[in-house]
Amino acid sequence: MRLLQLFALLTVCLVAGASAGAQQMPPTIVIVEDAGMKMLAPTIDVPGTVVSRFDSRLASELSAKLKWIADVGTVVKEGDIIASLDDITFQLLEMEAKSRVDREQARVTFLRAEKSRLERLDEDNLSAKSQLEQTTSNLAIAESDQAIAEAQLGQAKVAMYITRIRAPFDGIVTEKLRNIGERLNVADEVIRLVDPNSIEVVARAPLNTVNFIKNEDVLEIYNDYRKGQGSVRTTVPFGNPQSHMFEVRLNVDPSLWTVGESVRLSMPTAPAREVMAVPRDALVLRREGTSVFRIKDDMTAEQVSVITGLGAGSLIEVIGDVKPNDRIVIRGAERLSTGMTVDIRDDGDAGPAVNSLH
Question: Rounded mean pLDDT of the chain?
Fold first, then answer.
């Protein structure tokens, strides 16, 4: 009998302790976002690639030996030298052209003086007219030869200048296409330069999506590592006759994406319409159906059954007892039930605590 009394007393203590523990359980940490009326359209995902608007393979404009080339990864400014050719031959050509100019200049100077002298004598009838005419002709020829020599000197200076390959824009050296000591011919590619700050996404989309976008429309962009948005810069108005695909180019944030990265774009396939929308992360899928959790003014959770509709990007239409500005749980809902007390945190502040819910 005494054993039964002790057992009953122990049971009462355990139940009381459990009740006290239940009362002391901390609120569940959640992150919320307001529901609202949004313009959504059905979408399909199309592949795209991040490219630079300035991506050049710079070539030699001369036949010469490669003397120096910048290393891969070198950051350069517009006008910086990124490769140089052996220039000894072009120095000699410049010297020769300069000497030719000096010679023709001396000849022109002499003939001008001679013409002036003969013109003075002609005024006094002291010289033959034919001699003046011959000198005038020789001067014209000399002036023409001087102009040709100056043009040749200009060409020699240009050749000297282009023995240094210069960056046409700010960028990073991404590839060396030739090595020091190799003999180059005209148009041989030498080095690749890319500007990582002037980027865009290039995608090819079917006609049934292109019809529903226009310049400056904002589209969702994502891959396995990150997601963001891009605004439509242009749609190339000519499609591939075999694939019936059209090219679309979007401006994107250069701090978020990297040149060469593969992405996917959500593109509309029908006109947008206004619907009640919540983030997809708010949906709770359970055996009894789909629902979301709304946080009431007393900081308790309320489960609301919904039917999903149109989805676009990170948002999805919900049909049910959801109103604009309802605080809908987007993280932490999987452990909630109606009536539970919650603690709302900002997305940036609740990282470790919220992660413990998963």
Answer: 85
Residue located via tokens 């009998």: 1
159, HSE (Cβ side, Cα atoms, 13 Å): 21
Q: Tokens 């039964």, residue?
A: 4
Q: What is the pLDDT of residues 1-53, one digit of tens each?
A: 455 554 555 554 544 444 444 445 688 889 999 999 988 888 888 999 999 99
Shortest CA distance to 155 belongs to which of 33, 62, 73?
A: 62
Q: Confidence band (pLDDT; 50, 70, 90) for 235? A: confident
Please check whether residue 29 is in contact with residue 354, taking contact to mean a CB–CB distance below 8 angstroms.
yes
Q: Which residues contact 355 (CB under 8 A, 6 or more apart)?
A: none
For 49-79, give the DSSP string: EEEES-EEEEE-SS-EEEEEEPPTT-EE-TT
Pairing of strands 327-331, 218-222: unpaired
How far is residue 44's CA from residue 265's CA, in Å, rounded to a whole number? 8
CA distance 173 to 72: 5
- Is the pTM higher than 0.85? The answer reads no
What CA–CA distances, in Å, run from 273 to 220, 259, 270, 316, 317? 17, 34, 9, 12, 11
**Cβ-defined contacts of 238-247 (< 8 Å, 24+):** 239/207, 240/204, 243/204, 244/206, 244/207, 245/204, 245/205, 245/206, 246/204, 246/205, 246/206, 246/207, 246/210, 247/202, 247/203, 247/204
> Which residue, 110, 114, 108, 142, is CA-closest to 127?
114
Beta strands in 112-226 (DSSP E): 164-166, 171-176, 183-184, 189-194, 199-206, 218-222
Nearest to 158 by CA among 112, 76, 109, 97: 97
CB within 8 A of 187, min separation 6: which ones?
Answer: 59, 60, 61
Cβ atoms of residues 199 and 257 within 8 Å: yes
Per-residue pLDDT band for 354 (boundaries 50, 70, 90) equals: very low
- The band of 333, judged by pLDDT with boundaries at 50, 70 and 90, is confident
d(CA 154, CA 100): 12
CA end-to-end span of the chain: 49
